[in-house]
Amino acid sequence: MESHVLAVSALLSLLPVSELRGAIPYMAANSVPPLFAYFYCVVFNSLVGPFFYIFISTLHRFFIRFRWYSNLFNRFIANARKKIKDKVDRYGYLGIMLFVAVPLPITGAYTGTVGAWVLGMQKRKTIPAVIAGVMISGVIVTLITYLGLETFSFLTKKVNL
Questions:
Q1: What is the spatial distance between Cα 32 and Cα 26, in angstroms, rounded to a whole number?
Q2: Cα–Cα separations (whole angstroms), residue 6 to 30, 36, 103, 105, 158
Q3: Who contacts 99 (Cβ-Cβ below 8 Å, separation ≥6)?
């Protein structure tokens, strides 16, 4: 296995646009065995939760001193929490895990971490939920990438037109 394949895959796993949805198919295209691709990409994508949580918390502590940011943030947070309070109360950290687990655009470790942070969820419970979601997403992406979309055909109904 070439070192540039590993480097690009690690970078894709860490980027918010691609995450596992880009890294695992890239490894498959470079003939990397599925088990190695899964574990390698999941490890790198799992780093997003703790590091990004620290990053946004640090940025927030810096910017909260500015009135414009404080006003905007407080209005945004109050509105966001009010809109989804019942769902957060119902699903909590399981909801974060499931949100991260769905390998679609806009879902993933970054969005799950930001959502939990905005909602004031505890870091020590958010990080394991994000990592569990990354692991589930990794299984889904790996299966689809290496076995094809037919892997999940039992979930759909075929319609003849």
A1: 9
A2: 10, 11, 21, 23, 39
A3: 107, 111, 112, 115, 133
The alpha helices in the chain, defined as continuous H runs, are 3-14, 19-29, 34-46, 48-63, 67-101, 109-118, 123-147
Interval 86-139: pLDDT, tens: 777 789 999 999 999 999 888 999 999 998 998 889 999 999 999 999 999 999
Six-digit token string for 6:
């590993």
Amino acid identity, position 87? K
Q: How many C-alpha atoms does 55 have within 13 Å on its Cβ side? A: 9
- Residue 78, amino acid: A
Say what the pTM is. Answer: 0.85
Q: Report in angstroms the alpha-carbon separations of 153 from 102, 118, 160.
A: 17, 37, 15
Are the beta carbons of 96 and 116 closer than 8 angstroms?
A: yes
